[in-house]
Specification:
The structure holds 2 protein chains of 2 kinds. Chain A has a single domain, classed as MetI-like (MetI-like fold). Helices cover 83% and strands 0% of the residues of chain A. Chain A is mainly α. The radius of gyration of chain A is 21 Å and the shape is flat. Chain B has a domain of 149 residues: MetI-like fold (Orthogonal Bundle). Chain B contains 9 helices and no strands. Chain B is mainly alpha-helical. The chains are: A mainly alpha, B mainly alpha. At the A-B interface, helix 2, helix 3, helix 6, helix 7 and helix 8 of A face helix 3, helix 4, helix 8 and helix 9 of B.
Chain lengths: 218, 214
């Protein structure tokens, strides 16, 4: 099989790109999820300004395609003198994206916590803050975990959009190799397999977690 | 205003891409969902692997694969066909997963009752199971449609002249301060145009709920 020998030859360059993809995905999850938690709380805030701003951040982050957000950061902002490197723009855009989706997943998780828990902690005289930090959050996050794992997989796939703003990630590596040998079928297939090599096991782990959590509650 | 009109030129293609690939997905997902629920282990496992594989590879890879990779004799996909087929195949995989989830929420008793009434397999699936499953999954399908509408923007990377592509070309022609405008317009357009779908889905859902419980 000459394809396999070809693939073996391309693999080192692909892996360099894959590392960049993983790095961007890592940044967007590590920064995006805590930001999502904050947004999930401020969306329900009593302060009107805080509520309006966080609602706008969440709705734009979820409603506009990630590609458009990346374009705004990479091609749009430099026209106002705010220019950043492609990788930074990709990270900022995808962090926004991840935070917006994560905030919705976490909010749903918090809402799924039984009302009795809230009432019980009120009856025990726990402060609002203790009620949230010690009672609601631990249980809510727990039920949000499968969703957050799924989102992480989506974010990893979303890093492929950074190709459109010239970030040297996996797709870019494949495109460069394809441009040299003109065998795009072969190279993009290898790129797809590289993505699948990460996402397939990750999906199976997520499904496993989902099933386990269902069993734990049943 | 110029920017808005320039961007809007891409709207028809975005709608065509979204509608055609959604149609492919709605129909194509039916056999795949049945395969995912099949009693035959080999069939079920192979459907699962294919669905996971399609969902596990980013859409942009599928589009590039179809646009630049497929080269049979003199045949090549034009960008629009490549985008429709790519998005359609991805839709099949995602919608099959949604259908499968819906089929599983229909209580076993419904299958058994249909059997007991002597309904042939096909009639029980079409007349008994599918309507109940559809009621459960219709919000998920609407959510997927909104997602697909946004994902159709990826077709701009293989030079399909849809919304994002038009906004980009307008921005290239106006390299001054107003160059950011088309991107903001196109982002707002996606958000605004998603609203009717969400609204219609909520209407449909509440109507079907009434039909069952009233």
């Amino acid at each position: 099989m000459s394809w396999f020998t070809d693939w073996a030859a391309y693999l080192p360059q692909m892996l360099v790109g894959l590392r960049m993809s993983l790095y961007i995905a890592f940044v967007s999850v590590v920064l995006g999820y805590p930001l999502g938690l904050v947004l999930g709380l401020t969306v329900n805030s009593k302060n009107f300004a805080a509520r309006a701003i966080s609602l706008a951040i969440v709705e734009i982050g979820r409603g506009a395609p990630a590609l458009v957000i990346l374009y705004i950061f990479y091609y749009g902002l430099p026209k106002f003198g705010i220019s950043m490197e492609a990788v930074t723009a990709a990270c900022v855009g995808l962090v926004w994206n991840a935070a917006a989706y994560a905030s919705e997943i976490m909010r749903a998780g918090f809402q799924s916590v039984d009302r009795g828990q809230l009432e019980a902690s009120n009856a025990l005289g726990l402060s609002r803050r203790d009620t949230f930090v010690r009672i609601i959050m631990p249980q809510g996050i727990r039920s949000a975990i499968p969703g957050l794992m799924g989102l992480a997989i989506q974010m990893f796939q979303g890093t492929s959009l950074a190709f459109a703003i010239t970030v040297p990630e996996l797709m870019k590596a494949a495109d460069e190799i394809g441009g040299r040998n003109f065998n795009y079928l072969e190279t993009f297939m290898l790129a797809g397999l590289c993505y699948a090599a990460i996402t397939l096991p990750a999906t199976w782990i997520t499904v496993f977690f989902e099933k386990r959590m269902k069993r734990a509650y049943a | 205003m110029d920017a808005l009109f320039a961007v809007l030129q891409g709207l028809p293609l975005t709608v065509v891409l979204t509608a055609s690939s959604f149609a492919i997905g709605l129909v194509g997902a039916v056999p795949v969902a049945l395969g995912l629920n099949s009693h035959n282990v080999v069939l079920r496992m192979s459907c699962r692997l294919v669905v996971d594989l399609i969902r596990g590879v980013p859409i942009i890879v599928w589009l590039f694969l179809l646009k630049f990779g497929i080269h049979i004799g003199t045949f090549k996909f034009n960008p629009i066909n490549a985008a429709i087929i790519g998005l359609g195949v991805v839709s099949i995989a995602y919608l099959a997963e949604i259908y499968r989830g819906g089929l599983q929420t229909v209580p076993r008793g419904q299958f058994e009752a249909a059997d007991a009434l002597g309904l042939p397999n096909r009639a029980s699936l079409v007349g008994v199971i599918a309507p109940q499953a559809f009621r459960i999954v219709s919000p998920s399908i609407a959510t997927y449609l909104v997602g697909l509408f946004k994902d159709s923007s990826i077709a701009s990377t293989i030079i399909v002249a849809e919304l994002v592509f038009q906004s980009q070309s307008f921005a290239r022609q106006h390299p001054t301060g107003e160059g950011i405008l088309p991107y903001i317009i196109v982002g707002a357009l996606y958000i605004v145009l998603s609203l009717p779908v969400a609204y219609a889905s909520r209407r449909l859902d509440s109507r079907m709920r009434k039909a069952v419980f009233a």
